[in-house]
Amino acid sequence: MSARTVKLAVIPGDGIGPEVVAEGLKVLSVVAPRHGLTLDTTEYELGAKRWHATGETLPDSVEEELRRHEAIFLGAVGDPTVPSGVLERGLLLRLRFNFSHYVNLRPVRLYPGVTTPLAGVAPEDVDMLVVREGTEGPYAGMGGVLRRGTPGEIATQDSVNTRFGVERVVRYAFAKAAERPRRKLTLVHKDNVLTYAGELWQRVVREVGAEYPQVEVDYLHVDAATMFFVTQPRRFDVVVTDNLFGDIITDLGAAVAGGIGLAASGNINPEADFPSMFEPVHGSAPDIAGQSKADPTATVLSAALMLDHLGYGDAAAQVERAVAEDLQARAKDGGTRSTVQIGDDIAQRVAEQG
Ligand code: NAI
Ligand code: MG
């Protein structure tokens, strides 16, 4: 790639967010210049601290500023002192929806040297890419409450599935599957019960699949998929699924692939009409915050996804290689390094690759 400056918005957030983001930025600062990339970073204080201080989750003016960046790098937001839903809906989901992050990309990969809770499973058995729809489904915020607090209360939470929304994420998933060696795509849904939405997803996968004859297509109900994630992870290559199912199966995927400290994600707008946002799957982990106990690896791998999205695939591969080496070495060191030490070690390995 030619020399370029990318405007990067950084949202460290709460709890361990700032700790892991610092390590992600450290690794980026080593790898980026080696590929002609300059990151022009601006930090934004959003999350529980700001909400307590000002009552704001995401002021319109800040959203407008964020929009003028090429990418967003986020740690985690949330704290037990903030009512559930305030930051999830007011900040995270608002960014995902308003910036049209219709692809929530979550790789599930077992690196050599990492312990999986699954017996008899080797790294080559777990290498999948979950493409979770990010802007629709039951997370769209459609529905309402009637007669709240009375015995006759009714709450509805509608699942929104548009032809347009399903097709664009399915197209992305097929394109990814076609690029990967196994060329397999599994649709995960529950079309035997959620018949209206399920049939739409099935039909779109069939129609788009006709353009990708080289990609093998499979279908699994979500309940069966959870079973096979554990008993036959080898079945999966690219998985495409709706927002809620994707949220749940990727936590299972993270567990299978060595834990939440390693799980990376990208909230992607593939057309780059809006900045995409890269963040670890985990939250702010208040139980270990401030103790330098958090594993920054998920954040570093999220930075690699960001590099790839920005067109710096070689830089991304370099970071992934450094992480793979670090994870392999970790199997021997007993897992006693601090957050900062792990960040230092990964950055050092990147530097040694030249
Ligand atoms: P969590 O992911 O923060 O923590 C779950 C468990 O995993 C905890 O025991 C924690 O110590 C551990 N853990 C998480 N990340 C780790 C890391 N990098 N290294 C080592 N251990 C790690 O989920 P939890 O406890 O349900 O939520 C805590 C807060 O985070 C809540 O306020 C929640 O709303 C918020 N949250 C925010 C997310 C985001 O910003 N995208 C995503 C998930 C939760
Ligand atoms: Mg989740």
From TrEMBL:
Cofactor: Mg(2+); Mn(2+)
Xref: Pfam families: Iso_dh
GO MF terms, alphabetically ordered: 3-isopropylmalate dehydrogenase activity; magnesium ion binding; NAD binding
Keywords: Manganese, Metal-binding, NAD, Oxidoreductase
InterPro entries recorded: ICDH/IPMDH (IPR050501), IsoCit/isopropylmalate_DH_CS (IPR019818), IsoPropMal-DH-like_dom (IPR024084)
Family annotation (PROSITE patterns): IDH_IMDH
Signal peptide: none
Enzyme nomenclature, EC number: 1.1.1.85
SMART domains the record matches: Iso_dh
Chain ranges passing through the membrane: none
EC class (word): oxidoreductase
PANTHER family: D-MALATE DEHYDROGENASE [DECARBOXYLATING]
Protein name: 3-isopropylmalate dehydrogenase
Originating organism: Thermobifida halotolerans
